[in-house]
Design a protein that fits this description.
Order of helices and strands: HHHHHH
Largest sheet: none
Helix content: over 70%
Number of helices: 6
């Protein structure tokens, strides 16, 4: 058990996970900015603060998800995108770039659903005793590990080369 934990820690320290963490940090800034702006200004017409928080949090998570997908595709897993494109060019079925992008975005969103649900639920639960912004940061940190694993193993996985 100790050896497996050590291996997991070493794996999490890999370069790709650091990139993922930096993208996640940018997504956290986007999330927090949208959450604050929506809660305090954009959705101020919703009188009940708790109801407004539901809508504000939904908007913040949606915008941050698009931000994170874009940067993860362009930077974190860019090597796999290039490898998979090269494999397609040498014999696999070639997809149009827009359909490839949409398919990856769909997988990214599905792979992230658990983390999104976890973040949403934890933020709402923790906001009963903590400020909603602090509750959101804690929830984002907890959900990040599941998001990395799902996207590394499914959304941006290496595709087998077809001879």
């Amino acid at each position: 058990m100790g050896q497996r934990l050590f291996q997991l820690i070493e794996w999490l320290k890999s370069f790709r996970y650091i990139k993922f963490g930096l993208v996640g940090a940018s997504g956290t800034v986007v999330n927090m900015l949208i959450l604050y702006l929506a809660q305090e200004h954009l959705l101020a017409f919703i009188a009940q603060p708790r109801t407004r928080l539901y809508a504000s949090l939904t908007l913040a998570i949606a915008v941050a998800t698009v931000n994170n997908f874009t940067w993860n595709r362009l930077w974190t897993w860019a090597d796999r995108i290039r490898e998979n494109a090269a494999a397609s060019a040498t014999g696999a079925v070639v997809k149009l770039p827009s359909s490839l992008w949409m398919g990856q975005f769909g997988r990214y969103t599905l792979a992230s659903w658990f983390g999104i649900a976890l973040q949403y639920g934890l933020t709402l639960w923790l906001s009963h005793t903590l400020h909603y912004l602090l509750a959101n940061v804690i929830a984002i940190l907890i959900a990040s590990v599941s998001n990395f694993l799902a996207n590394d193993q499914w959304t941006f996985r290496r595709r087998p080369r077809i001879p």
